[in-house]
Amino acid sequence: MDLALSIKQKQLRRVARQFAKTELAPIAKEIDEEGRFPWEAVEKMGSLNLFGIQAPRKYGGAETDSISYCLVIEEISRVCASMGLMLAVHNGVVVHPIYQFGKDEQKAKFLSPLTAGEKIGAFCLTEPNAGSDAMAIESTALREGDSYIVNANKIFVTNGGVADILIIFASVDPGNVKKGFSAILVERGTPGFEVGLLENNCGMRANPVSSIILNDCRVPETNLLGREGEGFKVAMAALDSGRIGIAAQAVGIAQGALDASLKYAKERIQFRVPLAQHQAIQLMLADMGTMVEAARLLTLNAAHVKDQGGDLAAPSAMAKLFAGRTASKVASLGVQIHGGYGYSKDYPIERYFRDARATEIYEGTNEIQQIVIARELLKRGEE
Amino acid sequence: MDIIVCIKQVVAGDRVKIDPRTYSLVRSSEFSYINPFDLFALEMAIRLKKEHSGSITAITMGPKISEEVLWEALTLGADRAILLSDPQFSASDTLATSYVLGMGIRKIGKFDMILCGMRTTDGDTGQVGPQLAEELGLPCISAVEKLEGEKGSFRVERVSDGFREIVEVSAPALLTVSSKTAVRLPSLMDIQDTFTRNSIGCWNLEDLNADPNKVGRLGSGTWVEGLTPAAQKKSCIFIEGDAREQARVLLSKLIEKNLFS
Prior knowledge:
The complex is a heterodimer of chains A (about 375) and B (about 260).
Chain A: H1 7-24, H2 28-34, H3 39-47, H4 66-79, H5 81-101, H6 104-116, E1 121-124, E2 140-144, E3 147-157, E4 165-171, H7 177-180, E5 181-187, E6 193-198, E7 210-220, E8 224-225, H8 231-267, E9 269-270, E10 273-274, H9 279-307, H10 313-338, H11 349-358, H12 366-379
Parallel strand pairs in A: 1-4
Antiparallel strand pairs in A: 2-3, 3-7, 4-5, 5-8, 6-7, 9-10
Helix pairs in contact in A: 1-4, 4-5, 4-8, 4-9, 5-6, 5-8, 8-9, 8-10, 8-11, 9-10, 10-11, 10-12
Chain B: E1 2-6, E2 9-11, E3 32-34, H1 36-52, E4 55-61, H2 67-76, E5 80-84, H3 94-108, E6 113-117, H4 128-136, E7 140-150, E8 153-160, E9 163-170, E10 173-177, H5 188-197, E11 200-203, H6 205-208, H7 243-256
Helix pairs in contact in B: 2-5, 3-4
């Protein structure tokens, strides 16, 4: 079993690391404080193919393997979790399901602008009364001639404020959501499309998370992704694969929190020696480093399973569950190492602490991951 | 215009480990990267190629793991990469290294210009470029910041001791580069393409037809007798007085240490 990265994977990681260091590090604090989406970085990200990391070459993607995808998302999130999230959602649950489930005409129309970063994607499942319980959606898409009339109230939409192409989950049969659950591609600017208020979240503040409201939006039937009634399959496949990206994002946040803590522990003098020389601090750093490494290995394992075409449900849920908890725990220990300064906006650790918490909630809460994992374990026979 | 760029894999400053027996650097791939000055040389080569067309060959001497920096050079714009690697090359000082590089370049054959970084961030001797020029009998200009010209004849700007010197040179020549222009970051697609299209040529002692007495420890004119960390003494001075007085004292101290002119 070879756990070493290939030279190519390391070179792909280098691009993301270098970009994050030179372009995102100088603005990460500011865009978090201002809750501002950094358009100035978007064009550069597009030219580096960060909007089409794994998408096929034919549609402008770089067509990397899933391991490299994780390395890229980790490096971006290590410096700026909001942009890591933006890319993980765009690539993982928008671009990916379009090339997995899309018809050729849909791929031709939607993928190229998405992979170039000219258009940004969003994934709209959650509603006021549906989230973990996806089947409780109330959005509808009623057939009228060669169109669907879509009515939807979607909330907590990552990238919502800037998204141009959105996958909307709605039922074509309001009487039977289970049968009618469908995925429909909707473009910003369609009459009846409205971006609601931006969420005032505690973390990931540079990501314009918003509600999306569709009022009698007429969408051509050619925008149906997959078949009618196949939406749940599209959503679950997107999430199984997307969770690997969120796990990678959580690993990046944890690594960033560890980086900041190591730096601080070497600089800060207490009792006439750097903090790093106190055993109590060393114990925390050791736990943090071990957890980050374990989370990274679980995440890369899930990516490896995906590349091998294996069953993703359990490995990706395990990676996401463990990496999300790791991000929260490591960032919290990081705050502890920083002491009073950890609670202050003067140091980046508080941002990691706020950003980390979301990774235990979105793209399936910890508890949903546990349900998926338990179901998979119970399904397996004795080996 | 055919350009050869000599590159070296260096270890990140805070990750340097020294073998206590041989006093040589312990190399690991995780914390190694292209010597930053060599990146400036590569950038200059990329610009020259853009203006005059031609090809860029990156060359390095080192163990197998040095392939990584050659791949990096290829992703950044080199067209071809050669690794000079043989167990007998280990423990080469700058003289032996220059001989091996020289033999590699002789085997490559045709070139108009050789570009090297002015120095490396680990060994820091600044000798390999000039010694390689000597080995190949080429004119050498060091600390080059700017290069302009037509095929065959070049106008070179170098900076030294606070002077900007303009030098004319005709090809073939060797320049050591001290400009600080960064190389453009490749895209993920560029990297994918690089790995699909390229391979790394690897030449050993026999391939180079090199004299075993001129490489490694045998071929070295110098060897390291001892190695101890240089004590870095840091002291802190507190400047008293009001802001104006503090600024005055600070300025005089900076001038005294030649840090402000």
